[in-house]
Amino acid sequence: MSSGIDPGFLRSSDLFENQPDEVLQAVLVQDQVEDYGPGAIVFRQGDQGDRLYIVKSGVLEILAAQTDGADPVPVAYLGKGEVLGELALLTGSPRSATARSPERAELFTLEKAVFLDLMKSLPAFSRNLCLVLAKRLEATTLKVPRASSKQLQGNLKFFDLATVIQTLIGSHQTGSLVVTQEGGKQKIAEIFFFKGNIAKARVRHLSGDDAVFQLFQSPLEGEFSFTGRTVAEEEVQTDITMPAISLLMESVRLQDELPLLQQKVGDPVRVFRQKAAHLQWEDAETVELAAAVWSRLKKGASLNDLQQTVPRCSYAVYRTMLTLIETAQVD
Predict the structure, then answer these.
(1) pTM across the whole model
(2) Which of 20, 47, 232, 312 is most exposed by smallest CB count within 10 Å?
(3) Angle, to 10 degrees, between the axis of helix 314-326 and the axis of helix 209-217?
(4) What are the b/e assignments for 60-91, b being 16+ CB within 10 Å?
(5) Residue 23 has pLDDT above 70, yes or no
(6) d(CA 227, CA 230)
(7) Can you give the pLDDT at residue 69?
């Protein structure tokens, strides 16, 4: 095989999984690896497809234009071993999306002439390509989970975590998304996905639905990594109460409403204290949260203090404090 290139990234891809050594040798002998730095564009939507790309290392962000003319938005992330551009080579159609490197990526490329020659001369390559395309069509139309081998990692300075989560949901992944700081020494968040649904979530001191909500309300910093794995359904224990799409829709709604609450409450470091003799609260569904906030106000607490100690997302804490202010129970 070609010296200097580890064939492991090819074997981890859908296109080259279980391919015989002669196929890998025919591919690697091309020895074309391109480096892309932060923000580099690999190709743009509408460009002619003249080559196939295989992610050797790093992550690629796929952006699609909106029908209303707005700027393209991220719709997917591709990690090590994943392939893009094969459909454009087969159909001759323009690129259907833009691909960029958020942080850094190494891409192994195959020119169109080489790709077509491999299909013609190596039946094993053609068979596997047909299987890959069939699986992708099946996953798209029937929402069949793809193989749980996806791996993504990067720095959140370059990635939108919400889009990473949406990508994992949309590709029906099973595995764990972990966010760490201090060079991986401190784990601050972990989200477990099962067949495209979020099953368990923990973000700092929050868990369940509130942990997911908080990801949208207070963006995290640090490194993230997702590793897919196979899990039997009977092994899954969940602390999430909503289907993934409903959870995302509610997260976005709370994210949109939070700034208005923050504006009404005011300075997040201002210390509030109990003013009334006893808590007066009419909503039975949120009385437990109100009591938790109320107890911490006995000695005085700011919104920043409450968000660090009350096991609910920022929106819930601010909503509760605003009610206490409007009913003159605190000062």
Answers:
(1) 0.76
(2) 232
(3) 80
(4) bbbbebeeeeeeeebebbbbbbbbbbbebbbe
(5) yes
(6) 10
(7) 66
Residue-wise pLDDT for 81-114, tens only, equals: 888 888 788 888 888 889 999 999 999 998 888 8
- pLDDT tens per residue, range 157-183: 888 888 888 888 877 889 999 999 988
If we measure between CA atoms, which residue out of 216, 190, 225, 217 comes closest to residue 204?
190
How many of the other CB atoms lie within 10 Å of CB of 271?
13
Distance CA 218, CA 214 (A): 6
Strands (E), the chain: 33-36, 40-43, 51-58, 60-64, 73-78, 83-84, 98-101, 105-111, 151-155, 175-181, 186-194, 197-203, 206-207, 223-228
Percent of the chain with pLDDT strictly greater than 70: 92
Q: What is the predicted pLDDT for the residue at 3?
A: 44
Provide the 8-state DSSP code for 88. H
CB 25 within 8 A of CB 1: yes
Query: 170 burial class (0-12, 13-18, 19+ CB within 10 angstroms)?
Result: middle
Rounded to whole angstroms, how far apart are CA atoms 268 and 255? 17
Half-sphere exposure of 44 (CA within 13 A, CB side): 6
